[in-house]
Amino acid sequence: RRCKNASIMMLCRATNVARATGRRTFADGPLLKTMLYDLHVERGGKMVPFAGYELPVQYAGAGVLKEHTHCRAPGKASVFDVGHMGQIKWTGADRAAFLEKCVVGDIKGLGAGEGRLSLLTNESGGILDDTVITNAGDYIYMVVNGACKVTDMAHLEKMMAENSDMDVQMNYLGDDATLVALQGDGAKTALQPLLPDGFDMERFAFMTGVDTTVGGMECRVTRCGYTGEDGFEIGVTHTKDAVAVAELLLSNENVEPCGLGARDSLRLEAGLCLYGNDLDDTVNPVEGTLLWTIGPKDTRRRTEQGFPGASNMLTAEGKPKKFGRKRVGFMGHTKPARPGADIYSADGTTKVGTVTSGTVSPCLNAPIAMGYVETALGKNGTELTVDIRGKKIPTKVAKMPFVEPNYWRVPE
Question: What is the pLDDT of residue 1?
Answer without folding.
Answer: 40
